[in-house]
Amino acid sequence: MKLTRRSFIGTTAAATLAAPYVHAGGHGRPKVVVIGGGAGGATAARYIAKDSKGEIDVTLVEPSRSYYTCFFSNLYLGGFRSLDSIAHSYGTLASAYGINVVHDWAVGIDRDARTVTLAGGTSLNYDRLILSPGIDFVDGSVPGWDVSTQNAMPHAYKAGSQTELLKAQIEAMPQGGTFAMVAPPNPYRCPPGPYERVSMIAHKLKAENPTAKILIVDPKEKFSKQALFEEGWNTNYAGMIERIGPDFGADKVSVDAGAMTVTIDGNVEKVDVCNVIPAMKAGRICEIAGITEGNWAPVNGHTMQSRIDENIHVLGDASAQGDMPKSGFSANSQAKVAAMAVRGALTGSKVFPAKFSNTCWSLIDTDNGVKVGATYQATDEKIAKVDGFVSQTGEDAALRKATYEESIGWYSGITSDMFG
Amino acid sequence: MTFVIVVGIASSSSADDIGNAEKGREIFQKCAACHQIGQDAKNRVGPHLNSLFGRAAGGVVDYTKYSKGMSRAGADGLKWDLASLDAYIENPKALVSDTRMNFRGIKDKTDRDDLLAFLRFYSDNPANIPEAQPTAIAPEVALAPEILAIVGDTEYGEYLSSECKTCHQSDGTDKGIPSITGWPVDDFVVAMHAYKIKIRPHPVMQLMAGRLSDEEIAALAAYFSEL
Ligand SMILES: Cc1cc2nc3c(=O)[nH]c(=O)nc-3n(C[C@H](O)[C@H](O)[C@H](O)COP(=O)(O)OP(=O)(O)OC[C@H]3O[C@@H](n4cnc5c(N)ncnc54)[C@H](O)[C@@H]3O)c2cc1C
Predict the structure, then answer these.
(1) Which of A327, A353, A379 is the last residue of a domain?
(2) Domain identity same for B123 and B165
(3) Are residues A90 and A144 in the same domain?
(4) What is the tens place of the pLDDT at every residue in A394-413?
(5) How far is the first Cα of chain A from the last one, in angstroms, to the nearest whole number?
(6) Range with the lowest mean pLDDT among A34-38, A371-375, A402-406, B81-85?
(7) Of A49, A67, A170, A192, which has the highest C-beta tally within 10 A?
């Protein structure tokens, strides 16, 4: 049986999606505005433009002309990738997919009028709005740190100049100096990210500054792929890495960017480089739109629609969706579900049940890659995990190398899936 | 519906891309003094040679007589594949200088190719051993005819494929993850079912295939075959 593009598939379609095709003013092409050209936003814009074959007018709002992926930015710190190799531009999205790419910040959203205001003063109408603004930091989560001190104590949790700065600081460390990381509390973007970063920095220091120390101040009792990382640190970087958990006061941490000190439950440590990764929340524009509850924007997993405004879909790190980790892979996966739902609502194209998946690879040392992954499905309450796997400790070198090579294939795949 | 796992040697042209497996069976007589292969194969003077491709050198755990060089080569990351086996069989010492395998080697390239075709058949995932395009790979799972007969809905396949494209690129680029575009439908269906029933070992692909229905696999096969 072959169904036409405009019909709904009776058996599998989520009936909840069969909304009437309403769009702005009732004339012209329906309009979709996407805010944020990252893992979620770029993918959603591309899939809507590609699959609607011109039926939907897509505008992508993103301040930067180059998107530096956070994924593989740790590999840049470790010397496995150049900064250029993780930079991507929006040229193909505009030229090959007809997406109207606007380099500006969204600063206001009027949900009743369905308009977005940009910093430059432009106002954009939408029938559906997609928000994928990533994360911002929670003020005051690490006393002594705020965005005004981010150059003295970089977070490098949005990639680009921050990552470059952190690398330069590590290179300028005195022999035998101390690199400290203040790790974030849950939930945060890329659960294994801080620990992959420690591995990559250890790799670099082992070659360039072998007597240096790494201190992780971690408010969490446990962390992602912990057994794998700890095994890797013991075998590859013995004696270099120390982690202080909440049982030793790591949940009571403050910093002084002027004095370059980290105070852990009253004990002052002088350090040479300090990577502060504060607590996170949805990108500020979600708050401005009034669609957050607590720090995040709750969504319906079937469509990624905001639970507060069904004309808005929220993707990626900013969304509170259930079991999926905040990762680039997840954001990309969610974007495809949202793109399908938006097309279904605006043009009546077929809608299929949502499926999601995620895999996060981490590099521990040269050719020593590990991964964790799972599949998910939408239930009425949340996106729920179906099945998963994680690399094992003690795996042989050949498998670890294959895992690393696979991650390179994935990077190439996801970035062409995002940017065309 | 039933799965039949094929355990005979693929006859036809499929194995010809490396060599002739039937001729290889005869050449294996040179090895048989020391190695067993096939069902119930045991370690003898040398380790059994089942599941050789993709195995780390020195990787048979209950074979305790590996030379130091072989064990080290395995730890260094030497993996048995066409190239390394070809080299090892041509001249065992060229690859592992202190190897305990007391065998001169086979100088004739055609003979080695035939032997490799024979050995390859007894490996876990013949289809994953890169020697040719997927079209030339013998299907390792025989599926019930009604599964192969499902006509995939390409539009559904296109939606489902979006999940695959995070890793497998639509233009067939392979940078560490294999290309899956332009395959004959049957080969694709067979490969996916092989992951689904876990004959193929890869955990990501087992998860992906594990939750796809027969119709969904058919839809994906139809869609990707046309890319
Ligand atoms: C060190 C590190 C390593 C990581 N490694 C991995 C990994 O290996 N695998 C993986 O899957 N994930 C990884 N991640 C996580 C991944 O980067 C994020 O989860 C992913 O980027 C989230 O996608 P997003 O679309 O939600 O946000 P982003 O990709 O951050 O995109 C948000 C975009 O929105 C723009 N924006 C924000 N506000 C506005 C506004 N008001 N107006 C207009 N534009 C705006 C920003 O400029 C940005 O480009 C890693 C993250 C870090 C920090």
Answers:
(1) A353
(2) no
(3) no
(4) 988 878 888 898 999 999 99
(5) 31
(6) B81-85
(7) A49
Same domain for A157 and A90: no
Domain that holds residue B123: 3-137
- Which residues, other chains included, contact A310 with Cβ-Cβ below 8 Å and sequence gap of 6+? none
- Cite the DSSP H helix spans in chain B: 21-27, 29-32, 68-76, 82-90, 92-95, 109-121, 145-148, 154-164, 185-196, 203-210, 214-225
Q: A137-164, pLDDT tens digit by residue? A: 999 999 999 999 999 999 999 999 999 9
Q: How many Å lie between the centroid of ligand 1 and the Cα of residue B79?
A: 37
Q: CB-based contacts of A10: which residues, under 8 Å, 6+ apart?
A: none
Which range of residues forms the domain containing residue A82? 5-136+280-353
Q: Are A288 and A109 in contact (CB under 8 A)?
A: yes
Instruction: Select from A43, A155, A189 the residue to mutate for testing ligand 1; criterion: most ligand atoms less than 8 Å from CB.
Output: A189
Q: What percent of chain A has pLDDT over 70?
A: 94
* The amino acid at A261: T
Q: Which of B79, B159, B223 is the mutation pick for testing A, counting most A CBs within 10 A?
A: B159
In terms of domains, do B35 and B105 share one? Answer: yes
- CB-nearest to B169 from A3, A340, A412 is A412
Starting at the edge strand found earlier in the chain, the sheet holding A355-365 runs A355-365, A368-378, A383-390
State how many domains chain B has: 2
With CA atoms as reference, the chain A residue closest to B176 would be: A409
Q: What value of ipTM does the predicted structure carry?
A: 0.85
CA nearest B58 in A: which residue?
A396
Statement to judge: residues B210 and B157 lie in one domain: yes
Q: B7 pLDDT exceeds 50?
A: no
Is the pLDDT at B129 greater than 80, yes or no?
no
Q: How far is CA B193 from the centre of its chain?
A: 15
